[in-house]
Design a protein that fits this description.
Order of helices and strands: HHHEHEHEHEHEEEHHHHEHEHEEHEH
Largest sheet: 7 strands, mixed
CATH class of the largest domain: Alpha Beta
Radius of gyration: 22 Å
CATH superfamily of the largest domain: Type I PLP-dependent aspartate aminotransferase-like (Major domain)
Number of domains: 2
Number of helices: 15
């Protein structure tokens, strides 16, 4: 990984502030609405200005809330962006960010290798209801991106840092340079790689998250986050045409409080996920299995991730294991669940290992021919490697499942 004096975990630590009562845990603000001493101040805030006679500019929790804003300041610090708007889900983060950017007639380039819900939104709703032209491109092929980019018409480019579920990695700096030269906005989903990569430092304009995953790590709260410039975040909250304000995907203050607490352990958790995933990926490869993991030297994008990654956080906790057929993948998943290697469930970033057959679950919205084109085999099993339990005992269970399913001798 490249060396740098900037550390996202240190930035997160330094963004910590005491509560107004000097408590080490800031108070939760459950209020849905906030009072003003002067009606003129309320008018100013509704018009996008700051109040003159009081400290708070909070209006209504659908707009802003102290507890939610505190979480936003922490995530913004971690992502090295000016601001962040926490929202109710990862899909809310994606849809509001994209909707805020485009106008009828714009051109958008997206990766086909993304979360199935994102693909379905862009292909089935975004294009249809917003009048945009949508092209999909392999972002690991810069020539293909250049060919599909329409100068002055391509409004935005969208992809995931580590692509779900095949774990491809594009060069953010190279794509950011292409976007910059053409006045195109670069939006990057960093859900799979918090702390591991800081997209804004490599030229991404907007970074989105499903906080449900690694940022929270507890699988208790659904949430999302949009990181970017103060101007862009302010536009999302504008009372007249801001997508977060008007569509209403409000993050609950209690969820925001819990997620902010979860962020304190994020550096420890990311390192633990990455360490165990790297060990298992190497062992699975040595057994002759087809393993996708960007930490493997044999992975086609290992060098790319090494060049853009932050030191000390590894290559992530996600492994994709291609077993050839859907039947083999499902049978193996059932066996892993029965042997208590992990839990047969979608999502990722949980303390325990989660696994699912991507083609028929989280990527099922993507047509089969498109799945094949992006390298998603029907036999691909996606594993979010957890850190609980004794590592060697858990490995023995994984190896036992492989033997019982006749996948290794």
């Amino acid at each position: 990984m490249n060396s740098s004096f900037w550390d996202p975990a240190q930035a997160l630590q330094d963004a910590f502030v005491l509560g107004d009562d000097m408590g080490v845990n800031p108070c939760i603000s459950p209020s849905t609405t906030f009072a003003y001493y002067d009606a003129e101040d309320m008018t100013r805030v509704f018009s996008g200005q700051k109040p003159l006679k009081q400290k708070s500019g909070y209006l209504y929790t659908r707009h802003t809330n102290p507890t939610v804003c505190r979480l936003g300041s922490l995530i913004a610090a971690m992502e090295d962006t000016e601001a962040c708007a926490p929202v109710a889900s990862g899909m809310a983060a994606i849809t509001c960010a994209l909707n805020q950017l485009v106008e009828k007639g714009d051109h958008v380039i997206s990766s086909p290798c993304i979360y199935g819900g994102t693909y379905a939104y862009q292909k089935n709703l975004f294009e249809k209801h917003f009048g945009v032209t949508l092209d999909f491109a392999d972002f690991t092929d810069l020539d293909e991106v250049n060919k599909k980019l329409v100068v002055s018409k391509t409004r935005l480019v969208y992809f995931e840092t580590i692509a779900n579920p095949v774990l491809a990695v594009a060069s953010i700096p190279d794509i950011a340079q292409i976007c910059k030269e053409n006045g195109t906005v670069l939006v990057v989903d960093n859900t799979f790689s918090p702390l591991i990569v800081t997209p804004a430092q490599h030229g991404a304009d907007i970074v989105v998250y499903s906080t449900t995953k690694f940022l929270s790590g507890s699988s208790i709260h659904v949430g999302g986050a949009i990181c970017g410039s103060e101007n862009f975040i302010d536009s999302l909250l504008n009372v007249r045409d801001g997508w977060v304000m008007l569509a209403g995907p409000t993050m609950d203050p209690f969820a925001a409080f819990d997620i902010a607490k979860d962020l304190e352990s994020l550096p420890i958790r990311v390192k633990a996920h990455s360490t165990r995933a790297a060990i298992y990926a190497n062992r699975l490869k040595d057994l002759g299995l087809e393993v996708h993991y960007p930490g493997l030297a044999s992975h086609p994008h290992h060098v790319v991730l090494s060049n853009i990654g932050n030191p000390d956080y590894g290559f992530g906790g996600m492994i994709a294991l291609d077993l050839g057929t859907e039947a083999k993948a499902k049978s193996f998943a059932n066996r892993l669940h029965a042997l208590k290697f992990g839990i047969l469930a979608v999502s990722l970033g949980f303390s325990q290992t989660l696994f699912s057959c991507s083609g028929s679950s989280t990527s099922s919205e993507i047509p089969e021919d498109k799945q094949k084109a992006m390298g998603l085999s029907p036999g691909l099993l996606r594993l979010s490697i957890g850190y609980t339990g004794n590592m060697e005992i858990m490995w023995q269970r994984l190896e036992q499942a492989l033997k019982e399913e006749d996948l290794i001798s």
